[in-house]
Every structure is written in structure tokens, then in C-alpha cells.
Specification:
The complex is a heterodimer.
Chain A lengths: L1 H15 L2 H35 L2 E6 L5 H9 L2 E4 L5 H6 L5 E4 L4 H6 L7 E4 L7 H25 L20 H8 L3 H26 L3 H5 L5 H33 L13 H28 L3 H11 L4 H9 L14 H11 L6 H26 L2 H4 L3
Parallel strand pairs in A: 1-2, 1-3
Antiparallel strand pairs in A: 3-4
Chain B lengths: L1 E10 L2 E11 L4 E5 L6 H8 L7 E6 L2 E2 L4 H7 E4 L11 H11 L4 H14 L15 H13 L5 E5 L7 H16 L3 E6 L2 H7 L2 E6 L2 E6 L1 H8 L4 H9 L8
The chains are: A mainly alpha, B alpha/beta.
Subcellular location (chain A): Membrane
InterPro entries (chain A): ABC2_TM
Membrane topology (chain A): Multi-pass membrane protein
């Protein structure tokens, strides 16, 4: 225990004196996520909100063929713009989000009581136009329905004939669950922070020490190698844990900075959220520290270790990608799988649902077991003769 | 006392150490002499339990390396071939770290640190971080941390490697003092003059085998060469890898 503490304290002291480690583990790693997050969310949200409030400006070609339609659209917040020569090209080049074209025959077919056509020209592959297109479509359909009703009434028929089925939507989402959908990348930020927080130590304490030729004298001391390893792992864990703590707190403040309520969503990143996230992530902190050290024990140099780390970094991406590509129903077995369990657990918290004690404990316990296995594997590799030899 | 009996160690097809036996006694300086690649470092690494021999036995003060490696390490002070320091720690912190790993208590650590800092003349660097130390300052710090627990047996792998004339001289003096204190000093070198000037006993290694184990005088007499360097060349049978 004393050996472990000696190694731990020395590694912490040494790394606190290293500006690069501090930058990456305690500043850049944990704060990058929240900062990027705030920026993206603010841009997205303000744009969505602005679009909803503001009148839509739409270039209209052939406005003179349908003056009544244009007047009705104006009343609902559409601002007709002068026509443009080549609407297809303008839409492709993003000069216009959407263009309305009214053909010359509009008035004729209208007067005959037939279906008159209008054209909407847009590019659905440009995602930022989606909400504008939706609004303009809605305005046109509204107008069409109203006129249809009036035609029926004029012929003495009931408007109900036009609508044999009425849809009444009852959306079961809550303000929190809608927010949860939006923040699906949050769990990955947490995992990434843990990874970044421990990475430099894991490299430095094994591959780095070997490269600097201090591992051989260290192993000449009368202490078993596994005790040295445990001290080093503890230091790595503490750095990534502190990193995670900073990240979780930063996200807590983040929640207040994003004007999410205005979209009818709510996000609770308070203390109980933070505590549950930390508890779920704890085994992952240990597991990643062990894996990072293990990988770095195979590397002959600092550089090689860095290369291995970047490959290892791909691993935590899998559950995030998996869940976003094939949205699955969250079931209990997922909590038994490290990484996946944390992912679904945090998602569930974000949606404002409870993580049951069984789910929580299965997530933590299997995580710890796997971490212990990784630790044993690392200790086994640490026994190797070649580990200490620098040249 | 260090007793080595019939040590073998191979890496893949290469027999690095192929039947090495010798004894290094207390109160004597024993030199392990041999050209580069003769197996000196590998032999020493087996003595301080970093590597396991394929065959053979090592006894340090009667304790078998194979049965109680930790006890052996307590009896040994080792300056390995690799002498990396922790650059973000001061010399004193470097020494204290190893002292704590030796299980010494804090008051003893402080006392021994003071002694060593004085003995190795490193007062000027004791509180400075190891980043930017000269080669000599690095070796001094590495020796201090190797000897902090006051070991009976001292193993030094090429201790004067990379040192300038002045630093080499003070290193030799320091080794003589270790001998006068009654310790068993074993060091490796490929430099003739150094071994001749220091050793009570010379063990010459070539191609993983002991080719001579004598006092310097006996070595000269045995080969019929008055000059120790010529004697050395004659013993190892070639001038390959020899650095004077």
C-alpha cells in the first residue's frame, strides 16, 4: 500500500508539472466538448427560432397569373420577391432556398374549376432549407384546402365530404425526451473526455518512461512490478476522473446557456444527473486507463504509443455510431456491455427517464469486472523482461 | 558478496551469455571487462534480477536471485546501463522517490540524502529540476539514488561512460571509497586503463564466456605482456570491438 502510494504521489506530482498534460487532461479535453456543444447548439437553435418567427422571402415567378393566391400568402407571412431568371440554378447554388413558379394557365384552369398547378423549386439535399420548404408547402396546402371547402359549399355540399378521416395527433414526447434526441452525442463527449484525460499519463508512465530509460532503474527497486503498475494506474485514473468531473460540471453550466426551452424542450444536467453519470463512468475510467497502459506497454517509443492510442480511441465510437445508425429499443442486456451500457444509460437520463438500480448496478459491476480483467492482462504484460529494456 | 555460477542467457538464436562464472568479494573492486557485445550488460541484468537466466545460479550475500528477487534487490545498489532520471523532478526528489520505494522511513531518507549530496558534491543541483543536467550531473544523481539505501553490494554498468576527465576521476575516487567502506563493488567497462587503475580483480568476458579471471598482475604474467592492453587483446583473441 505504501509503495502504491509512493508511486501514485510521484506520478501525480511529476505530471502536474507538465504543462502539456495539464492542458490536454484538465483544460482542452474536458472543456472542448462543452464549448463546441454550446456553439453548435446556439447556431442551430437561433437559426431555427429565427426562421419560425420571421416572414419567409420567396421569389415568385408569374405572380400576375394568381393575384388572389399571392394576396392570401402575403397575409400569412410570405413576402414575394421579384422573379429570377433561372430558378433551378439559383436553388442549386443556394442563391435562393425555394422558388415558387405559377404557370400561365393557372387562371384558366382555376376558372374551369379544375386543379391548378404551382411549382416549388428547391433542393432537399440542403438540409438547412428544410424548415422553409415545409412552411411554404404548408401555406399552399392551407390555401388549397380553404378554397376546396369554398367550392364544395358553393355547390351545396358538406365540407366533411372532403375529409373522411380527421387526424388528431397526440405526441407522447416530453420536453426532456425531445431534448434527449438532440443531445445524443453527449455520452460520447464524456467517454472522449475520460480517454483524453488519461491518455498522456498512460503513454508517459509506461512507453515514455521506457523511452527515457528510467524504467530499468525503477524495476531494480525491491518492490513487485504489479505494485508499481497499480500506482501508475491510480494516477492515470485520477487524472481522467478529474477531467470527467470538469466536463460534467461544464455541461451543467452549458444547459443554462443554451436557449433550449424556446424550442419546447427541457434539459436537466443538474447534480443528480452528474452523480449518476460519474458513477456509471467510474468503471470505464478504470477500464480505459488499463487499456491505454496495456497498449502503451507494447510500444517501443512514445510516438508508437501515441499511434496505438489513436487506434484505441476508435473503440468507444462504435456504440455511439451503432445507436445512431440503428436506433434500438433500450433493453436490459445493453447495460451489461461496457461502453454501450454507459451510452444508453446516459441517454436515458437525458431523456428524463430513470435508470433503475438494477440497470445502474449491472452497468457498474460488469464494467468493474471487465476493468479488473484488463488490469490483470496489463499486469501480466508488465512482468515481461523486455518491458524494461529501452534499447 | 556476489557469486555467479554457470550463467546462460540466449535471445532467439543468439547466445548472449554462455556459461559465465565468477565471484566478486566484499571490500574489493571487481571489473567486468570485455568488448562491446560480449555479454557484460546482460550478465549484470541477470544479477539485479531484471532478466531471468536460462540456466545457472546467482547468489547475492548468499541469497538466491531465483528464489527471493526482492530480498536480493534490497542488498544491491544498481547503476544500470539505462540511467534515465525524472526530468520534472529535482535531484533530491529523484533520490527520495527511490528511497521510499526501498521502504526507508522519512528521517533516514533525509539523512542519507544529505550524506550523498555532500559525498557526490551535488549541492548545487540538489534542488534543481533534472531537465538540462549535464551528463556528469545525471550520473551523479543516478548513483545517489542507487546507493540511497546503503547497500552492501554495488553494481555499476559502465559508470564512466560519457564522462569527461574530471568527472571520471571523481567517479574513480568514489568507487575506491565504496571499497574502503567494505562494500562489494562490481563494475563493467570496455576501457583498459580504467580497469587497470581500479580493480583488485579482472574478469574478462568475450562472446558470452569468461576468458580470464585474475588480478591485474597475474593477468600480465599469464599473457607475458607487460602492457595490460596487449594482454587484453591476446586474451580475447582479436582486436574486434576494443576501445582503449
Amino acid at each position: 500500500m505504501k509503495t502504491l502510494l509512493t508511486v501514485f504521489l510521484k506520478e501525480v506530482k511529476e505530471n502536474l508539472r507538465d504543462r502539456r498534460t495539464i492542458m490536454s487532461a484538465l483544460i482542452l479535453g474536458p472543456l472542448l466538448g462543452p464549448v463546441i456543444f454550446i456553439m453548435i447548439m446556439n447556431v442551430v437553435l437561433t437559426r431555427e427560432l429565427n426562421k419560425a418567427d420571421q416572414p419567409v422571402k420567396v421569389p415568385v415567378i408569374g405572380a400576375k397569373y394568381a393575384p388572389n393566391l399571392i394576396d392570401a400568402l402575403k397575409q400569412q407571412g410570405l413576402v414575394p420577391q421579384p422573379p429570377i431568371a433561372d430558378p433551378e440554378a439559383a436553388v442549386r447554388d443556394r442563391d435562393a432556398e425555394i422558388v415558387l413558379r405559377i404557370p400561365a394557365g393557372f387562371g384558366d384552369s382555376w376558372r374551369k374549376g379544375q386543379t391548378s398547378q404551382v411549382e416549388l423549386i428547391y433542393d432537399s439535399s440542403q438540409s438547412d432549407t428544410g424548415s422553409t420548404v415545409g412552411r411554404v408547402k404548408g401555406l399552399l396546402e392551407n390555401y388549397s384546402r380553404r378554397q376546396g371547402v369554398m367550392r364544395l359549399v358553393a355547390r351545396g355540399l358538406s365540407p366533411a365530404m372532403m375529409a373522411p378521416v380527421a387526424i388528431d395527433e397526440r405526441d407522447q414526447s416530453t420536453p426532456q425526451s425531445r431534448a434527449g434526441m438532440m443531445f445524443g452525442m453527449l455520452p460520447y463527449f464524456f467517454v472522449l473526455t475520460v480517454f483524453m484525460g488519461g491518455m498522456y499519463l498512460a503513454i508517459d508512465l509506461t512507453a515514455g518512461e521506457r523511452e527515457r530509460q528510467s524504467l530499468e532503474p525503477l524495476f531494480a527497486n525491491p518492490v513487485p512490478r504489479w505494485k508499481i503498475l497499480l500506482g501508475k494506474l491510480a494516477a492515470t485514473c485520477v487524472f481522467s476522473l478529474v477531467s470527467l468531473l470538469i466536463c460534467v460540471i461544464a455541461f451543467g453550466f452549458c444547459g443554462k446557456l443554451i436557449p433550449i426551452e424556446r424550442l419546447g424542450m427541457r434539459m436537466n444536467l443538474g447534480i443528480s444527473f452528474a452523480a449518476q453519470v460519474l458513477l456509471m463512468m467510474l468503471p470505464l475510467v478504470m477500464l480505459l486507463a488499463c487499456l491505454q497502459t496495456l497498449v502503451s506497454a507494447f510500444a517501443k517509443s512514445y510516438r508508437e504509443a501515441q499511434t496505438y492510442q489513436s487506434v484505441l480511441m476508435m473503440v468507444p465510437i462504435f456504440p455511439s455510431v451503432l445507436l445512431s445508425v440503428t436506433p434500438m429499443k433500450i433493453t436490459d442486456w445493453m447495460f451489461y456491455v461496457p461502453l454501450l451500457g454507459q451510452q444508453v444509460g446516459i441517454m436515458q437520463l437525458l431523456r428524463g427517464e430513470q435508470v433503475t438500480p438494477v440497470q445502474l448496478s449491472s452497468c457498474v459491476i460488469t464494467g468493474l469486472l471487465v476493468a479488473l480483467l484488463a488490469m490483470a492482462a496489463t499486469a501480466w504484460v508488465y512482468r515481461s523482461e523486455r518491458l524494461a529494456i529501452s534499447t | 558478496m556476489i557469486e555467479v555460477k554457470d550463467l546462460h542467457k540466449h535471445f532467439a538464436a543468439v547466445k548472449a551469455v554462455d556459461g559465465v562464472s565468477f565471484t566478486a568479494r566484499d571490500g574489493e573492486i571487481t571489473g567486468l571487462l570485455g568488448p562491446n557485445g560480449a555479454g557484460k550488460t546482460t550478465t549484470l541484468r541477470m544479477l539485479y534480477t531484471l532478466m531471468q537466466p536460462d540456466r545457472g545460479q546467482v547468489l547475492i550475500d548468499g541469497i538466491d536471485v531465483a528464489t527471493d528477487a526482492l530480498a536480493v534487490r534490497r542488498q544491491l545498489g544498481v547503476l544500470p546501463d539505462a540511467r534515465g532520471l525524472y526530468k520534472r523532478l529535482t535531484a533530491r526528489e529523484n533520490i527520495e522517490y527511490f528511497a521510499r520505494l526501498q521502504g526507508m522511513d522519512e528521517s533516514l531518507i533525509r539523512m542519507r540524502c544529505e550524506q550523498l549530496v555532500k559525498a557526490l558534491d551535488m549541492t548545487d543541483i540538489a534542488e534543481r529540476r533534472a531537465e538540462g543536467y549535464s551528463q556528469g550531473q545525471r550520473v551523479k544523481t543516478a548513483i545517489a539514488r542507487a546507493l540511497v539505501h546503503d547497500p552492501r553490494n554495488v553494481i555499476l554498468d559502465e559508470p564512466t561512460n560519457g564522462l569527461d576527465v574530471m568527472a571520471t576521476r571523481s567517479m574513480r575516487q568514489f568507487m575506491r571509497r565504496l571499497k574502503e567502506e567494505g562494500r562489494c563493488v562490481l563494475f563493467s567497462s570496455h576501457i583498459m586503463q580504467e580497469v587497470a587503475a581500479l580493480c583488485d580483480r579482472i574478469v574478462v568476458i568475450a562472446h558470452g564466456r569468461v576468458v580470464a579471471d585474475e588480478t591485474p598482475d597475474a593477468l600480465r604474467a599469464q599473457t607475458g605482456e607487460a602492457n595490460l592492453e596487449d594482454a587484453f587483446v591476446k586474451i580475447i583473441g582479436s582486436e574486434e570491438g576494443l576501445a582503449a
